[in-house]
Amino acid sequence: MRKRGQTKFLDRFLPWAAWGYLLVICMGWVVLYEGDDWWLATVFLFGPRWPVFVPIVLLAIPVSLCSRPLFFPLAVGALIALGPLMGFSIPSVSSVVRAGHDPSSLRIRVLTQNHEAAPIDAPRFREMIEMLKPDIVAMQECGTPHEQTVSPIPNFYFHVHYGLCLLSRFPIRKADPFDRSDVWKIGGSGAIVLYDLDFHGITISLLNLQLETPREGLDALQHSRWKGIPEMEANIRLRQWESKLAQQWSLRARGPILIMGDFNMPVESDIYRTFWSSFTNVYSDVGFGYGFTKQLKYWGTRIDHILAGPGWVPESVRVIPDVGSDHLGVVAELRLAP
Fold this sequence. Notes:
With 338 residues, the protein is of the alpha+beta class. The chain folds into two domains: 4-85; 93-336, Endonuclease/exonuclease/phosphatase (Deoxyribonuclease I, Chain A), CATH 3.60.10. The chain is 41% helix and 24% strand. The strands form three sheets. The protein has a six-stranded mixed sheet with strand order 3-4-2-1-14-13. It has a six-stranded mixed sheet with strand order 5-6-7-8-12-9. A hairpin with a 2-residue loop joins strand 3 and strand 4 (164-168). The longest helix has 29 residues, at 4-32. The chain starts with a helix and ends with a strand.
């Protein structure tokens, strides 16, 4: 039995704890969308989010014993944490409504994956291509060993430019690489190539990219604590500028555009919303689940994306097993609206 003092303490503490937890979860949800605008929110954006479930574990037993109505704020907080806070995606209403429409439309299957400069398991890669049957494969951090593995694959046109590789079943009419020299001078990536492809007689455009990582800014905070804040803020400004350059480069497209690659940011990022939210994120539109593409030691995040411009209608998407990289690939099927 509980003593009277314990009862009074729990009766006073538990409501504050349960409703306070819900408030903190809601505040965390708001702060998440300040990531890549405010350095502290950026740490939360790229860090592990699972610790938000710890209070539920600590409060579940005392609430069940003392005040079961307090399960309501805990349950609401848990749903917010499991859903939008962790990045859970469900197909949009519009994607469900349009499912199965226009069977005569031209369809395309695309795959993107960052290979992290790791050696590709050639048999597994070829087996994956044979199984998925993609029409286009966009690869990032694709070095010389990768070129030797992927370039001989039959029935594909191949192009490589400074670590970006493209396999396409459709003729490559034009490759328009972005001049990286200014970005390289300040330590950025600038890996951006725009392609024109002959898609059944129609010109479509594809932007293959790899944007700058937040790793240097996060490492500066980890090693130098508050002294690393200026470096973190400089990294955010660099990544904002690079996304702006890539988004402007996409305006050179001569046909319906697909944008694929390693954006190094989740969809909650302020940079993502500023420069990329005008495109349809295929996973956010028709995907189900968290769709983590970057596996870290204790958590995952979705930073590799397939975006579709006007004219494209996403139909399906999924994350596929790796072929030797710490990034997982994303494969999607889309149709070109008449």
